Inverse folding.
């Protein structure tokens, strides 16, 4: 019975922690702003936005003052207005650089704004009404919590019954707690070429009509027309409509070119007496070719078609319900690759490379992708649908949006608009429009919105779900390989849990022109993030075999294993890494010790670190149970990861202590292990000790889980509750099941720039790193040491290394066999008492190197 009671208490503590964490993550308050008035009542600014989220207050507004000092509690920051606010300038006739933004750690009490105005200042106190707004928001948030939690109860009950180790991750993902959600579409393996690559039998039309309006752009015409002639694989009739170009060279050149090619293909030149614009020219071409049979292709004069393009473009039109078909391109709105709706200017040859990749890798029987519209730069239209719907509406003037209008009219009659996922046509980007394009877009979008109120939402839904994400990613990877100056495409293996490893990973990503992150342990098995200068593309899949099929053909790939903790089948990772890195280079980073043991912190079942475990170690913490129930011993684990270590070109650790631990498990890696300490994410100023401090206050930074010393911190809170003169504060949060006794403030989430402010608020005199595993590197330790305040840590791993070298470090003896959290907390307490001067022990402070506390 007592065992059941303890387990029930633990689950109740976990529930309370989860509820508090949900509130911390999702509570966002929009607070009232205020007008900033001077002593005469004149408006000199406006605090437009006040938002409280995850323990920080975010402000946005504008002011005519030269400077703005913002005070909240003990925190004070200065802002100089420097954001462009043309809306304010147009009304007041002032300089446009009057906007400001700021954020600071939240504290209860009034927000004080001090405006600098010449030789005097103006102080404004603003009541944000936080308490009233928070009470209302928290009630609503608890309803949302139960709304999200109740559907999970069957999964939670089953997971608890089966002792499912992956249950906490799945619950966090479902509740959106600190995990990366599955933003981005899901990849579809049916797109990739399978064993049967033959295209479905289709009866293509005997002849296709191509209508190309031309206005100027003489520099593009030779290539555009030359590609139509040389790359079209079906009989065609080309109708070129010269739209009274302002460049007098265009019409003579077209006459000469057509005379040269008319004997090989039926090509007509139509010369407009006056400029009709794109729509007028297209409509004239449609009228002239009305008697033709077969589909019509609208083709811009800046569209560069690849080999074999025509048969692929019109193939979907063999389905009588399909009204239009549009290929992928570098500038075609929802059909754009690599990044949807983000124009990407290509260099010579890149479009052909991307098209070849799609033709080779996308299956001829790939799923049909319907879209809300086609894009008229290169769009095939079925003749029957032209007769049913009619021509383009002249209300759209010189062009842009007319194809959307036509497609929506066809949809009303049952017509479908599809993407040609095996074809990529380069678009040189609106060369015929010039500077008028933006004005045309704004004007014609307003017409589309008024005619089709649901269209914008259809487009947003398409972007969100992105049914073209698989061919888009294939095209994107081909584009990345074709980039000049890019010798390798780094593919990072990362996790979804944030922390120091993620900070390092993002630094590496930012340093690359293009890179890929395969992220494990989130809402899906693998989240793919392709970072480019044009933005980030994301896609999700639960199929690692499909990931291998996507990436192993990339010849420039280089694999960097960062950390994949959180994956539901960790024992399968070595084989995946070996296959992914076949015939390329592999680098392994040690952000934890997963390659050494399933217990990636190297802690035993009882939470004690006993050094690097021997392969024959039978501690359950060093065995792994796969999803199918297979148990992997530590010897098997070490053998599988040993193959990865042996194949790696480079092994990188982030502290000397970590290197020694890795080599203890894999001595054969001697000579290949590099030590590269991290740098602080941002500088932290040295802090003065609080003057006239009445007591020692020790603060702990971060999210404190079991391996981070949650049991020690809980025990320390009990010890300090019985003694006055020493305070404890947690700037972060603690795992469930580890209650903090007494009146211990728990601040919650914080940002690095908040550390000096929070240290002042809580009158911090010392920092404590309670971690009980040998960390590979600890940002938190270095952040604490940078403040100059005394910092305590156990003699373990990277944290012990850093503290032992620092003049403000206080090194505590590492946990010993059988030592419980209360004894470790006692060692911390004795060190703090010594710092307070109440107990002086031998070896207290050494000016150059701190000694260890807690030795027998």
């Amino acid at each position: 019975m007592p065992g059941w009671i303890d387990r029930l208490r633990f689950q109740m503590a976990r529930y309370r922690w989860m509820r508090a964490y949900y509130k911390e993550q999702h509570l966002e308050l929009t607070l009232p702003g205020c007008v900033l008035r001077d002593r005469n009542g004149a408006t000199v600014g406006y605090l437009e936005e006040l938002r409280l989220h995850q323990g920080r207050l975010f402000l946005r507004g504008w002011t005519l003052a030269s400077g703005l000092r913002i005070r909240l509690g003990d925190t004070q920051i200065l802002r100089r207005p420097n954001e462009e606010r043309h809306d304010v300038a147009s009304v007041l006739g002032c300089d446009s650089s009057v906007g400001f933004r700021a954020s600071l750690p939240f504290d209860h009490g009034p927000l004080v704004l001090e405006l600098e105005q010449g030789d005097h200042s103006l102080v404004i106190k603003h009541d944000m009404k936080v308490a009233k707004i928070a009470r209302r928001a928290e009630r609503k948030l608890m309803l949302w919590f139960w709304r999200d939690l109740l559907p999970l109860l069957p999964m939670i009950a089953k997971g608890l019954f089966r002792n499912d180790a992956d249950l906490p991750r799945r619950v966090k993902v479902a509740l959106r707690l600190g995990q990366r959600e599955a933003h981005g579409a899901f990849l579809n393996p049916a797109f990739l070429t399978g064993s049967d690559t033959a295209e479905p039998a289709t009866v293509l039309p005997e002849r296709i009509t191509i209508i190309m309006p031309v206005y100027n752009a003489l520099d593009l015409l030779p290539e555009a027309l030359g590609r139509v002639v040389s790359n079209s694989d079906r009989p065609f009739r080309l109708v070129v409509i010269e739209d009274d170009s302002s460049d007098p060279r265009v019409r003579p050149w077209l006459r000469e070119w057509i005379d040269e090619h008319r004997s090989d293909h039926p090509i007509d030149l139509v010369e407009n007496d006056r400029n009709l614009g794109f729509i007028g020219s297209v409509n004239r071409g449609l009228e002239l070719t009305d008697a033709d049979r077969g589909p019509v292709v609208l083709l811009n004069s800046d569209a560069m078609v690849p080999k074999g393009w025509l048969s692929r473009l019109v193939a979907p039109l063999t389905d009588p319900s399909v009204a239009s078909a549009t290929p992928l391109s570098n500038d075609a709105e929802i059909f754009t690759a690599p990044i949807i709706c983000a124009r990407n200017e290509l260099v010579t040859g890149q479009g052909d490379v991307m098209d070849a990749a799609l033709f080779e890798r996308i299956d001829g029987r790939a799923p049909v992708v319907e879209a809300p519209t086609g894009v008229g730069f290169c769009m095939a239209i079925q003749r029957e649908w032209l007769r049913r719907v009619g021509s383009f509406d002249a209300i759209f003037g010189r062009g842009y949006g007319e194809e959307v209008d036509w497609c929506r009219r066809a949809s009303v009659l049952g017509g479908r608009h599809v993407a040609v996922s095996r074809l990529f046509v380069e678009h040189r980007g609106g060369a015929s429009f010039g500077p008028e394009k933006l004005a045309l877009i704004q004007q014609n979008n307003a017409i589309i919105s008024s005619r089709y109120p649901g269209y914008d939402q259809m487009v947003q839904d398409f972007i969100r779900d992105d049914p073209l994400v698989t061919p888009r990613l294939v095209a994107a990877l081909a584009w990345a390989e074709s980039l000049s100056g890019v010798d390798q495409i780094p593919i990072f293996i990362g996790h979804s849990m944030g922390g120091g490893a993620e900070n390092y990973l993002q630094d590496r990503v930012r340093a690359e022109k293009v890179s890929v992150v395969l992220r494990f342990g989130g809402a899906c098995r693998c989240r793919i993030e392709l970072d480019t200068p044009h933005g980030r593309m994301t896609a999700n899949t639960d199929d690692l075999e499909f990931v291998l099929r996507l990436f192993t053909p990339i010849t420039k790939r280089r694999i960097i294993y960062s950390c994949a903790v959180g994956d539901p089948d960790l024992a399968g990772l070595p084989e995946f890494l070996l296959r992914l890195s076949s015939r390329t280079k592999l680098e392994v980073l040690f952000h934890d010790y997963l390659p050494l043991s399933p217990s990636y912190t190297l802690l035993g079942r009882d939470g004690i670190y006993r050094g690097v475990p021997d392969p024959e170690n039978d501690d359950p913490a060093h065995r792994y149970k796969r999803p199918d129930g297979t148990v992997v011993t530590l010897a098997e684990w070490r053998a599988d990861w040993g193959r990865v270590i042996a194949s790696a070109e480079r092994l990188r650790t982030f502290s000397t202590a970590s290197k020694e631990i890795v080599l203890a498990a894999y001595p054969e890696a001697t000579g290949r292990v590099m030590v590269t300490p991290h740098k602080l994410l941002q500088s932290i100023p040295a802090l003065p000790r609080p003057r006239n401090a009445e007591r020692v206050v020790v603060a702990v930074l971060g999210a404190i889980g079991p391996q981070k010393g949650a049991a020690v911190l809980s025990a320390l809170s009990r010890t300090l509750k019985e003694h006055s003169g020493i305070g404890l504060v947690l700037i972060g949060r603690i795992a469930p099941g580890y209650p903090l006794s007494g009146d211990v403030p728990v601040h919650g989430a914080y940002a690095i720039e908040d550390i000096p402010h929070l240290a002042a608020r809580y009158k911090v005199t010392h920092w404590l790193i309670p971690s009980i595993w040998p960390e590979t590197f600890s940002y938190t330790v270095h952040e604490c040491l940078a403040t100059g305040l005394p910092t305590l840590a156990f003699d373990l791993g990277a944290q012990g290394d850093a503290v032992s070298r620092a003049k403000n470090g206080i090194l505590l003896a590492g946990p010993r066999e059988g030592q419980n959290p209360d004894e470790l907390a006692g060692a911390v307490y004795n060190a703090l008492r010594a710092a307070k001067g109440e107990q002086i022990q031998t070896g207290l402070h050494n000016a150059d190197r701190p000694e260890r506390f807690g030795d027998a």
